[in-house]
Amino acid sequence: MNMHSSDNRSAGLIQAASPTDPEGLKSLLIRRAGELVNQLIACAGRHDPPFLAEEFARLQNIKRIEKTDLGETDAMLLRLAEGYVIRVNSNHHPFRQNFSCAHEIGHTVLHELERRPSVDELELRALDLNMGRRTKERLCDAFAAELLMPEPVFRRYLLRFGASVSSIEGLSGIFKVSVPAVAIRVSQISEEPCVAVLWRKCQKPRSKGFQLIWTSTPSSQHGGDYRTEERGYVRDPSALLRAYQGSCVIKSFKAFGLDSHKKRYYMESKGFGRDSARYVISLIFPQRYSMGLESQGRKDHANG
Questions:
Q1: CATH homologous superfamily for 193-301?
Q2: How far does Cα 209 stand from its chain's mean position?
Q3: Structure pTM?
Q4: pLDDT (tens digit, 9 = 90+) per residue, 127-186?
């Protein structure tokens, strides 16, 4: 596929969905990510991960990727007359940089699909609030996930490793993306429905426990569309504390709100990161029951 034919395809795709329709745009972005993956596979002659953002950059007229100190910002996209430049935070882990760059590549595809004329020679994506910044960020995260962890490839590896929190670190190393990004992808693609949760230790002196930061639920085509009602805070001691303090997978049962119904679900948790950056990832399996863990579940119930 040459870039000219790719541009024609994007022009045709935009007729199928309005730029104000997030779900329509998400489908187009994921389809475009698949096209870029196929193009890279054809050029590189390999089908296995990792798929790196820098390999896709030249396919989207990105002239260079600059690593620099961006403070609290992950990355930013500069749009110049001759093409794009990505600046990525040099202080972040290379796996996080990889996803951040792929996210910015997603913004270049959004520019194609929206067909917006450039107002200035230089455009900072962070200042472009058209369509709603939060919506754009979610769309570009979905694009980055498909670009770096293509569904057919990721599914094959997930079947080999198994849907478990113990598999996440290995998959992270294979696909060169962060542990949280892999956890989200597992929840999206796993044949067995699961909900991914990221917890962080509360930093306030009087708050001894864990705060729920985000949840990622299965998509409807993969075992059900779960909606989480959780706004969680878990007090110490708990299964989360054991996961945070140790290096093993902690299996437990936790009361969790899914689809407006709160009940106890089987949960696996593991701590990742170091020092102040340490966090806990949990995978909750709504349809999994383990009789061998019932006694442990009763112990954790009061702390869950």
A1: irre protein (3.30.450.130)
A2: 25
A3: 0.82
A4: 344 567 888 899 999 999 999 999 999 999 999 999 999 999 999 999 999 999 999 999
